[in-house]
Amino acid sequence: MILFGYLFMCLIFSTTFLAIKIGIDAGVPPFFSAGLRFFIAGLILFVVMVLKRKTPVGLFFRKEMLLTGIGLTFGTFATLYWAEQFVPSGTAAVLSATGPMMILLIQTFILKIKAHSSSFIGCLVGIIGVFLLILPSFTFHMDAFVLAGCLLIIVGEVFYASGTIYSKRVMDQFSKVSPIALNAVQMMHGGILLMLLSLGTEEIHWGALVSPAAVGSYVYLIVFGSMGGHTLYYWLVSKTNPVFPSTWLFVSPILAMLLGAFFYHEAVTWVSGVGALIIILGTIIISLPNLRSNLGSNVRLAKVLRSKQSKIM
User: Fold this and answer.
1) Which of 112-120's residues contact partners 24+ apart within 8 Å by CB, and which partners?
2) CA–CA distance, 193 with 147 (Å, rounded to integer)
3) Going residue by residue through the chain (313 aa), what tens digit of pLDDT does each one get?
4) 3-class SS letters over the chain
5) Cα distance between residue 313 and residue 305, in whole Å
6) Integer CA distances (angstroms), 89 to 14, 18, 81, 283, 312, in order
């Protein structure tokens, strides 16, 4: 059951980038599209948690939820949705996998937390991969919007990394509140901010909002992307450990590139393909210390359990 849930989560996360691209190409304003998606998904989850008495209504009014929403939802997805007007969905997915590198850089150079040497090697490998991935954009007739979109996605990952680091402190502070409720409230805050940004920067064509492609994109992203994927992620964390579910970053970006090329005829050059693989390799190298530490903890726990069972017998 755990393996099935993990594979299904990877499939969901890899397809959300294509679903975003389809909705934007249908004429839906990117900021409004993102805001509506996260606000509705967060609202549904929050109402369910309140009705089950797993969270108080007052959680919505805590400033910690607003700050988390700015990092994890507003900053991350404002940049991603705008960029996907110009950047292929597969490229966007791979660039989004640079999140762990941004976490490493923030922890090392801002929070002054000592990192493992292999993490820096992985970061360097990832940077090389990013360069190769966007290298095809550096042509004589360089598309400035494609390049700007790629860079903005990386900026969005800085927001994501900051939000992730901060959300860990928030989860410790609200340890008695369901993580699903915390995620729901921050999505609501991020969604509201995205729609406010849309009101000041975008012209909304209501006819495009009800087109089949737009509606299909909304439904898929709300039900599967925001509610299903993130709920599966938290379920896997509760059933396994925080490290195992995060390895979706090793699987989903490559799958997203293949899906974009197959279903949406997005061009993939051999240079960008190599760059994508190198980025994933860098992400794996960065995560190795955590993976080894977690594996060692699991082995020690298994030995303790076997020892207790032998004493009982």
Assistant:
1) 116/288, 116/289, 118/285, 118/286, 118/288, 118/289, 119/285, 119/286, 119/289
2) 26
3) 778 888 898 899 999 999 999 999 999 999 999 999 999 999 999 999 999 998 999 999 999 999 999 999 999 999 999 999 999 998 999 899 888 888 888 988 898 888 777 878 888 888 898 888 877 766 545 578 888 999 999 999 999 989 988 988 898 899 888 888 999 999 999 999 999 999 999 988 888 888 999 999 999 999 999 888 877 887 786 677 655 677 787 788 888 988 998 888 888 888 888 988 998 898 888 777 766 665 555 555 445 445 544 444 4
4) CHHHHHHHHHHHHHHHHHHHHHHHHCCCCHHHHHHHHHHHHHHHHHHHHHHCCCCCHHHHHCHHHHHHHHHHHHHHHHHHHHHCCCCCHHHHHHHHCCHHHHHHHHHHHCCCCCCCHHHHHHHHHHHHHHHHHHHHHCCCCCCHHHHHHHHHHHHHHHHHHHHHHHHHHHHHHCCCCCHHHHHHHHHHHHHHHHHHHHHHHCCCCHHHHCCHHHHHHHHHHHHHHHHHHHHHHHHHHHHCCCHHHHCHHHHHHHHHHHHHHHHCCCCCCHHHHHHHHHHHHHHHHHHHHHHHHHHHHHHHHHHHHHHHHHHHC
5) 12
6) 10, 5, 10, 19, 55
Question: The tokens of 55 are what?
Answer: 């969270």
**Residue type present at position 51:** L
